[in-house]
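This section describes the prediction task in plain terms. A model, or a person checking by hand, is given the sequence of a single protein chain and must write out its three-dimensional structure as a string of tokens. No templates, partner chains or ligands are provided. The sample shown here is typical of the held-out split.
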Amino acid sequence: MVERKKGPKFRQVVLDCTDARALAEFYRRLLVWDYRPGDEAGDDKDWLVLRNPDGGVQIAFQQVDRLPEASWPDAEPVPQQLHLDLTVESVEELEEQHARVLELGGRLRYDRSEDPEEPLRVYADPAGHPFCVFVD
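The expected answer:
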């Protein structure tokens, strides 16, 4: 057996945003995650963290003054740079989550829900970050 080198642990993805609380609330409600203790309320809007209840990677939100919205899946003028992949177990659940994403303030960017091989939809969150929901 080959010994595997140990690397750093992947802790979280950090999203820049012009309204950290609003974007954190979008993902908190969408993913049904909780804030890191102390981040639930208050005036501190510069840095918020959502904890994964399964113990995996977290999402953090960092306040910035300006942020150009990604135009992906269109190639120009602003590439995606990063996007989140979220999965559901069935096409029926994809439809349910579609309604939730829109209700929470997400915007549909691309619809491939009819694809028999890999049904998916691409959205922009309220800050313009792209994310996909697909059937796994």
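For orientation: The first helix runs from residue 20 to 31.
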